[in-house]
């Protein structure tokens, strides 16, 4: 798919809690068809320390409104600068980058698992799967009830199962502790979140004939296969997270 470099206009910047916010962006030209799992590289102007673009997943897409949404967690200088961007300001973006989650087989039972800010690509994926006639279910894990975000929007896609580490909402523990994973069998699991969580989910799926895909959040520089700073070791050799991923079948990863 051809890559574009475009100025997008900020339509809204909505704070969800002290370090998470959603940017809604609109472009001058019509959006191309985007796929869940793909990401953008955003340029952050005005600082020597942030001269490299930052990779951010596509959180949601509205073709009628010609908008994309990004769910961003403040992690450092770049994301902090983005948190202060105002309605009407421009952001330069290279997109669409990377591969996407695969389409499950017909009648497959599907579970989307996300933790913390790692839920970002799952909103777009869940809505996309629903629009294609699938019935995805969603398992989300957060540190505590105050960290839960966009619950109602996920619940409009399908059943949502919740865990919090302190038990303040949903079941207590990590996503892999949730009883739904003991009581039900899913054919296809898509997961995004902190690496230990994705490894635990991959461990749960291995040996059970569950197709498990994860979206890796590797450190990146170029975002389109030139600098080789995002290499991941797989059974197929060394692959670039930015062009061969960020979505990988966990059977292929040599973690
Ligand atoms: C394919 C992909 C999709 C992503 N999607 C999202 C998203 O939807 N929302 C979101 O909030 N973040 C996402 N990230 C992570 C995001 O890119 C980093 O948090 C961001 O680049 C940090 O930039 P910074 O200038 O704020 O922090 P920096 O000052 O550059 O770094 C601050 C801290 O964040 C860590 N960090 C830097 N880059 C990354 C990275 N790429 N992945 C993980 N940790 C990193 C650094 O090691 C450091 O500890 C994604 C990363 C990738 C590779
Ligand atoms: S980020 Fe440059 S090759 Fe992947």
Strand order of the largest sheet: 4-3-7-1-2-6-5
- The proportion of residues forming helix, as a percent range, comes to 10-25%
How much of the sequence lies in strands comes to: 25-35%
- Number of helices, counting only DSSP H or I runs of 4 residues or more: 5
Written as H for each helix and E for each strand, in order along the chain, the element string is EEEEEEHEEHEHEEHEHEEEE
General shape:
globular
Radius of gyration: 18 Å
- What distance lies between the first and last C-alpha atoms, to the nearest angstrom? 29 Å
What's the pLDDT, averaged over the residues? 95
Pick out the low-confidence regions.
none
Number of strands: 16
User: How does the major sheet shape up?
Assistant: 7 strands, antiparallel
Description:
The protein has helices at 77-83, 120-131, 151-155, 180-183, 195-205, and strands at 4-15, 20-27, 39-42, 54-57, 60-62, 67-73, 90-97, 110-115, 137-142, 160-164, 171-172, 188-192, 211-215, 231-234, 237-240, 247-249. With 255 residues, it is an alpha/beta fold. A 7-stranded antiparallel sheet has the order 4-3-7-1-2-6-5. The chain has a 7-stranded mixed sheet with strand order 11-10-9-8-12-13-16, with helices on both faces. The protein has a two-stranded antiparallel ribbon with strand order 14-15. Strand 14 (231-234) and strand 15 (237-240) form a beta hairpin. The protein is globular, with a radius of gyration of 18 Å. It starts with a strand and ends in a 6-residue tail after the last strand. Bound molecules: flavin-adenine dinucleotide and FE2/S2 (inorganic) cluster. Flavin-adenine dinucleotide (FAD) binds at residues 39, 50, 54-57, 71-73, 75-79, 117, 120, 217-220, 246.
């Amino acid at each position: 798919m051809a890559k574009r470099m475009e100025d997008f206009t900020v339509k809204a910047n909505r704070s969800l809690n002290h370090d998470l916010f959603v940017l809604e962006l609109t472009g001058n030209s019509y959006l191309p068809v985007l796929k869940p799992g793909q990401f953008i590289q955003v340029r952050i102007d005005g600082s020597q320390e942030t001269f490299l673009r930052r990779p951010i997943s596509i959180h949601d897409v509205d073709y009628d409104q010609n908008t994309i949404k990004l769910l961003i967690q403040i992690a450092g200088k770049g994301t902090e600068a983005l948190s202060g961007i105002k309605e009407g300001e421009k952001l330069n973006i290279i997109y669409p980058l990377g591969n996407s989650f695969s389409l499950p087989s017909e009648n497959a039972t599907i579970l989307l698992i996300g933790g913390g800010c790692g839920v970002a690509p799952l909103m777009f994926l869940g809505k996309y799967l629903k629009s294609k006639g699938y019935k995805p279910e969603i398992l989300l894990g957060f540190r505590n009830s105050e960290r839960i975000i966009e619950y109602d929007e996920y619940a409009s896609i399908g059943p949502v199962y919740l865990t919090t580490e302190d038990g303040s909402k949903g079941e207590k523990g990590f996503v892999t502790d949730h009883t739904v994973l003991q009581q039900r069998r899913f054919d296809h699991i898509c997961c995004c979140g902190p690496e230990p969580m994705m490894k635990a989910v991959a461990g749960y799926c291995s040996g059970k004939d569950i197709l498990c895909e994860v979206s890796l959040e590797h450190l990146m520089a170029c975002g389109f296969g030139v600098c080789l700073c995002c290499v991941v070791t797989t059974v197929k050799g060394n692959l670039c997270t930015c062009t061969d991923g960020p979505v990988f079948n966990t059977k292929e990863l040599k973690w």
